[in-house]
């Protein structure tokens, strides 16, 4: 596992974007596993800027997103499909037919999850997976559990996750209680993983995930077993592990 500690959010975003850009340049038809939430917005800003400057081409890239709220349609402003279109898809030349997000509008969880696993399989797996990490150590919407999940599944969101995501919803809107999420097995099969985390609130889950036992109650801890995982942190998120890592 490789660690990069950035001075601030701007440098963190640039370092993560560097890794994604390198993947796109080395393999123009690569499959990118993408994430939502506040953490990757700066990274998407960098990638969009470099595309607009003519430095990157996403025309042959396929994207496969981690998760989506159950019950939200793609045109819902709080859906992750909408988020991706606003922050990334509409700003680069990726083909709409090559972008994939779980179908949150499908009420049949088993059908929606099987369909998404088929998309991942037919794409040939994920070349580089971008991840954030939740305050409880979740990756995607894989919450603390008794066992690591394998494929895409419907998950009941932890109260801490619902509370953390409330800031994205306006007054009177409830955060959905369930989501479809790519499974831990699919994430681990990605050929490369880049996890980003910033802020003091991520100090504890970062320390527990990368220097504690590998247990399903701390989902991100499974990344200790991945052969090519890069963790990009700011100073606050890295505070608990600085004396135990070598950094770039």
Your description of this structure?
The protein has one domain (2-244): 3-Layer(aba) Sandwich (Rossmann fold), CATH 3.40.50.1360. The model has no long low-confidence stretch (mean pLDDT 95). Strands 1-10-9-6-2-3-5 form a seven-stranded parallel sheet, with helices on both faces. The chain contains seven helices and ten strands. It has helices at residues 9-26, 41-52, 80-87, 109-122, 159-165, 184-188, 203-211; strands at residues 2-6, 31-34, 62-65, 67-69, 99-100, 128-131, 153-156, 178-181, 192-197, 229-234. Helix 1 packs across helix 2. Strand 9, helix 7 (203-211) and strand 10 form a beta-alpha-beta unit. The chain has 248 residues and is of the alpha/beta class.
Supply the key terms.
7 helices, Rossmann fold, seven-stranded parallel β-sheet, 10 strands, three-stranded antiparallel β-sheet, alpha/beta, 248 residues
Integer count of domains: 1
Sequence stretches where pLDDT stays below 50 over 5 or more residues: none
Which overall shape is indicated by the principal axes computed on the Cα atoms? Answer: globular
Beta-strand residue fraction: 15-25%
- How many whole angstroms does the radius of gyration measure? 17 Å
CATH class: Alpha Beta
**Secondary-structure arrangement, i.e. CATH architecture:** 3-Layer(aba) Sandwich
Task: Indicate the structural class.
Answer: alpha/beta
The largest sheet, given as strand count, sense and whether it forms a barrel, is:
7 strands, parallel
Helix content: 25-40%
For the secondary structure, the number of strands is 10
Number of helices: 7
């Amino acid at each position: 596992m490789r660690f990069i500690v950035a001075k601030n959010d701007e440098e963190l975003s640039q370092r993560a974007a560097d890794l994604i850009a390198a993947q796109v340049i080395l393999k123009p038809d690569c499959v990118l596993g993408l994430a939502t939430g506040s953490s990757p917005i700066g990274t998407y800003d960098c990638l969009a800027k470099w595309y607009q400057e003519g430095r990157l081409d996403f025309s042959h890239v396929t994207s496969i997103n981690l998760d989506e709220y159950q019950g939200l349609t793609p045109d819902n402003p709080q859906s992750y499909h909408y988020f991706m279109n606003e922050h990334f898809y509409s700003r680069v030349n990726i083909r709409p037919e090559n972008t994939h997000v779980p179908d949150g509008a499908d009420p049949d969880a088993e059908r929606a999850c099987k369909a998404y696993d088929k998309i991942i399989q037919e794409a040939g797996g994920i070349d580089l997976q971008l991840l954030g990490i939740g305050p409880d150590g979740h990756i995607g919407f894989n919450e603390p559990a008794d066992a690591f999940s394998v494929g895409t599944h419907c998950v009941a969101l932890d109260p801490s996750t619902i509370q953390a995501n409330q800031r994205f919803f306006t007054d009177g809107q409830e955060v959905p209680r369930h989501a479809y999420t790519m499974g831990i097995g699919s994430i681990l099969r990605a050929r490369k993983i880049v996890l980003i985390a910033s802020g003091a609130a991520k100090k504890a889950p970062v320390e527990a995930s990368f220097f504690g036992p590998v247990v399903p109650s701390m989902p991100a801890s499974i990344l200790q077993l991945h052969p090519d995982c890069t963790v990009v942190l700011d100073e606050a998120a890295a505070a608990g592990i600085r004396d135990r890592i070598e950094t770039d």
